[in-house]
Amino acid sequence: MMLDKNSFAFIWHAFWLSLAETFTDKNSVLPGLILLAGGTQTDIGTLTAIMIGVPLISQIIFASLLLKKPYKKKYLLIGIYLRVTAFLGVALSIYFLKEFTPQLFILIVFFWMALFSISGAFAGISYNDLLGKSIESTKRKKFFVIKQFITSFGILISAFVLKKMLVGFSYPDNYKYAFTLAGILLFIGTAGYYSVKERATIVDEKAINFVKIIKSIPTQLSQNKNLKYLVIIANLIGLTITITPFYIAYAKKLYVFNNEIISNFLLYQIIGMITSNLFWHYLIKKIGFKGMIKTSVLLYSIVPVSALILSQLNSSEIFSLLFLLVGVAISANKIAIEGALIEI
Questions:
Q1: Who has the most CB within 10 Å: 27, 83, 91, 218?
Q2: Strand, helix or coil at 306?
Q3: What are phi and psi of 179, to 5 degrees?
Q4: Domain-located, residue 219
Q5: What whole-number distance in Å separates Cα of residue 46 and Cα of residue 52?
Q6: What would the mean pLDDT of 160-179 be, rounded to a whole number?
């Protein structure tokens, strides 16, 4: 059965986005760029705060603004184009790398990634609204299955291409090409949305404002125990996720740090994500989303311990296995949290 026009538009974007995000992976590629430019663990911490913390704050701020808008497609496109600008901005900054001191270059990268994170939150709210209006509930299960398959395929392709790019070109040209390609791919991904016919959302402007959204949070958490526990668990997992980029900095201390190591870490992470997806779809039928959340917590708690154990074996190839586990944990967490939110 063929996809309808709206479903195809979202699948089209998901494929190109998966390619773009792999070229700029926040767990391996971005930390690698910062460290190779002369950055420290403190800089990695700042980058992590920008990539994880900024979207959370931005979503709360933008929610009160965007929920008042009956049509969201143009705001989605604005958000995506700003992300394209951020990718190309990093590429342009790398082109002029010799003109900057290491710390100034890192600050410029922080600026572009802040723009990327803020615009991502802006686009994400519009995306969810547009998706809900554009794809009928009876077709969503099929849509998400196809989307996950296409996305996994895109990630796998881009992982091998990126590995060749990082190893085949010297620094900083390899990163310049990676971010340029990411910007171009994400731009191509927007094409499908122009064919989406959006229905207007009925909104009550008096009921939606920033203050009311903030005030409603305690009430929502007290009345919905499942939501309360999900928020607690998601935040605990979030703390462990923020540690992931530091494994790159840890590897720099242990081994001869180069582009091949970074590309290996990313490749292992993606293999872990894709292969575990097959197992999770089987397991979730037996243990449900709550069971998947417990599995996700268990996996993320194992990762730091595994890092310490694998680092004692004095082999970068063996340490790469850590990112296989990270990929498995990322995959489990994504399925668990998204599924639990739908149930709530």
A1: 83
A2: helix
A3: -75, -35
A4: no
A5: 10
A6: 89
pLDDT tens for each residue of 15-47: 999 899 888 888 788 888 998 999 888 898 888
Last residue within a domain, chosen from 150, 184, 214: 214
Quick one: the chain helix, strand, coil %, rounded to 5? Answer: 85, 0, 15
Q: For 33-58, give the DSSP string.
A: HHHHTT--HHHHHHHHIIIIIHHHHH
Check residue 195 and give its pLDDT: 80
User: Taking CA 255 as the corner, what is the angle to CA 253 and CA 258, rounded to the nearest 5 degrees?
Assistant: 100
Give the total number of structural domains in the chain.
2
How far apart are the C-alpha atoms of 127 and 103, rounded to whole Å? 35
In this prediction, residue 179 carries a pLDDT of 95
Residue 97's CATH number? 1.20.1250.20
Q: Strand, helix or coil at 315? A: coil
Q: Tell me: the pLDDT tens digits for 99-157?
A: 999 999 999 999 999 999 888 877 887 887 787 777 776 666 667 767 777 887 888 88
**Which two structure tokens, joined as six digits, stand for 181?**
């390609």
Six-digit token string for 14: 């998901």
Specify whether the CB–CB gap between 334 and 281 falls below 8 A: no
Q: In the chain, what's the furthest Cα-to-Cα distance?
A: 61
Query: Which domain covers residue 294, as residue numbers?
Result: 224-344
28 and 155 share a domain?
A: yes
Q: Which two tokens stand for residue 188?
A: 């191509």
